[in-house]
Amino acid sequence: MSFNLLKGKKGIIFGALDERSIAWRTALRCHDEGAQLVLSNAPVALRMGEINKLGETVKAPVIGADVVNMEDLKKLFEESMKHFGGGIDFILHSIGMSLNMRKGKHYTEIDYSFNQKTLDISAMSLHRILRTAWDMDALNEWGSVVGLSYIASQRVFPDYNEMADAKALLESVTRSFGYYYGLKKKVRVNTISQSPVRTMAGSGVKGFDAFFSYAEKMSPLGNATADECAAYCASLFSDLTRMVTMQNLFHDGGFSFTGITETIINQMEK
After folding, report:
1. Distance between CA 137 and CA 83 in Å, rounded?
2. SS3 for 40?
3. What residue spans of 33-162 are helical by DSSP H?
4. How far is Cα 126 from Cα 67, in angstroms, rounded to an integer?
5. Are 210 and 264 in contact (CB under 8 A)?
6. CATH number of the domain at 10-269, please?
């Protein structure tokens, strides 16, 4: 069901890879809500994924950009503003990659050169995106920026590895840049701490199936789906949430504030 929440708004969606990804589902929802879009991902991801298919569906150009390359980001914003004929109203940052996880490195034995790249791609990329928009005055007043996070930024989840540190940094950038952007142009910056979702990235985490099952049993409402997260993103891009900024917003069916559930107790007592 569409509510025309984003009618007349223009936004950039980073990170759509395939139809399971939250960024992909968010692009579909934002399009349904009346938004005009530009889609972006790293050149290697453009080759691996099916983003051109999404671009056709939501009538959006696909512009490749390496999010750790400031010239790429500048070009992306220039082309996006030219396409829109003006400024940008919202941005979704759905970007994350752990080289240590890919290489099978345990958290206690991480390669620090890999770690630097992980933090740059997964967290400081948000700073780079915001910095580029800031320098180019690309975001309209009362714009909205959302990054996707996970509760491992605050609690220990074995095998989530260095991505836990990356998400903690992502949330810190959200607060710090959100403060300055709020003062400058009333732009709000938030992260969503989402339930585990069976995306390509999520499924690459060791023990993901156990993560997913445990969260489902620990959440009074169950795990939030990618489509439900997309709807939440759309609400944060809309004018209904103008006074929400610098927040890490849990979208996890109640997992984050549940100590234990009867289902888990019964399972342990068997």
Report:
1. 16
2. strand
3. 43-48, 51-58, 70-84, 99-102, 112-119, 125-136
4. 8
5. no
6. 3.40.50.720
Closest CA to 100 of 119, 128, 79, 77: 119
CA–CA dist 143, 80 (Å, integer): 15
H or E element at residue 36: strand 36-40
**How many secondary structure helices (H) and strands (E) does the chain include?**
12, 6
Give residue 19's identity as a one-letter amino acid code. Answer: E
Full-model pTM: 0.95
Alpha-carbon gap, residue 132 to 244, rounded angstroms: 22
Q: What is the pLDDT of residues 229-267, one digit of tens each?
A: 999 999 999 999 999 999 999 999 999 999 988 988 888
As given in the structure block, the two tokens for residue 35 are: 């938004």
- Residue 241's CB is within 10 A of a number of other CB atoms, namely 17
AA letter at 203: S
Q: What is the dihedral of CA 7, 10, 16, 20, to 10 degrees?
A: -10
Residue 31 and residue 37 in contact, taking contact as beta carbons nearer than 8 Å:
yes
Please, what is the angle between helix 163-185 and helix 125-136, to 10°?
20
